[in-house]
Design a protein that fits this description.
This protein is α/β, with parallel strands linked by helices and 291 residues long. The protein has one domain: Rossmann fold. It is built from nine helices and nine strands. It has a seven-stranded parallel beta sheet, with helices on both faces. Strands 7-8 form a two-stranded antiparallel sheet. Helix 2 packs across helix 9. The chain is globular. The chain starts with a helix and ends in a 6-residue tail after the last strand. About 2% of the residues have low confidence. Keywords: NADP. Pfam families: adh_short. InterPro entries: NAD(P)-bd_dom_sf (IPR036291), SDR (IPR050259), SDR_fam (IPR002347). It is an enzyme of class 1 (oxidoreductase).
């Protein structure tokens, strides 16, 4: 598409009477709750056809049902991201749902399995690297036939990272490495699939967003691995960050954690036509933290 044609297409999109993502087919992994669920809802509000991907079938179905009840269009395709068979099924069923097209992938699924370096097990290491690096790569690879196309329609891949990947974090060597690796994958996609196919790829790195991963570990949230092991989530109360007497987070210029909706809004912005000339970048969503 010539630059002038694309400029005209963008100008038309900016009117978005039916939503900025009208008719686009989007996979959002880990969208049964939290940031993923909010991303799915915001996408649907902007006209996208959304595939809710989550290991928890009940939670995923509730998100899809709420979208459909609000006038949007969504289906739930539950499964384990660590299963190669599931990734292939996810791509196949999404393409069927989308009448042969997939426009957006948001690699959001994940969790933390913390441990100081000298106590981190091989299982902890391998699990987190697979979940945040290997499996997102395999999903993108499986979906390549739907992105390496020249139909003039927008294509976007968003890989979710973290400030742990940008700056490191004590107790998270596995997670920090995985989230740092996400940026390299993103840039490679942008360089390989941008020139001929117009695919945009960007990373969104979250700071302290109020989710089960940043809640007090004492609240008891956990995930269960496929072999039945329970992994405690959250941050021990003593390590949750410096606060002043008013309860504000002193290391965050905006003075508070972000909400799941604010985090999801950043993802929506990145895939929207408002960011049509942005690719290969990492957007930090931190409230100003780590400037």
């Amino acid at each position: 598409m010539a630059p002038s044609d694309r400029a005209g297409q963008i100008a038309a999109h900016l009117n978005y009477p039916k939503g900025m993502l009208n008719g686009q087919v989007a996979i959002v992994t880990g969208s049964g709750q939290g940031i993923g669920a909010e991303t799915a809802r915001l996408f649907a509000n902007e006209g996208a056809w959304v595939v809710v991907s989550d290991i928890d079938a009940e939670k995923g179905q509730k998100v899809a049902d709420s979208i459909n009840a609000s006038g949007g269009k969504a289906i739930s395709i539950p499964g384990d991201m660590l299963s190669d068979a599931y990734l292939n099924e996810l791509v196949k069923k999404t393409a069927e749902f989308g009448n042969g097209k997939i426009h957006i992938i948001v690699n959001n699924a994940g969790y933390t399995w913390d441990g100081v370096i000298h106590k981190t097990t091989d299982k902890q290491w391998d699990n987190i690297i697979a979940l945040h690096n290997t499996q997102p790569f395999k999903l993108i690879r499986a979906a390549a036939p739907y992105f390496r196309v020249k139909d003039g329609e927008p294509r976007n891949i968003v890989n979710i990272s973290s400030t742990s990947g940008l700056h490191g974090n004590a107790g998270q060597a596995n997670y920090a490495l995985a989230k740092a690796g996400v940026t390299g994958l993103t840039k490679t996609i942008a360089k390989e699939w941008g020139p001929s196919f117009g695919v945009r790829a960007n990373t969104v790195a979250f700071g302290h967003i109020a989710t089960r991963l940043t809640a007090a570990k004492e609240e008891g949230a956990f995930v269960t691995t496929p072999d039945g092991q329970k992994i405690a989530l959250g941050i021990p109360q003593a390590q949750r960050g410096a606060r002043n007497q008013d309860g504000a987070f002193k290391d965050i210029p905006l003075g508070r954690p972000g909400t799941a909706t604010e985090a999801a809004s950043a993802v929506l912005a990145v895939v929207s036509p408002l960011f049509s000339y942005v690719s290969g970048q990492t957007l930090s969503v931190t409230g100003g933290r780590n400037m």
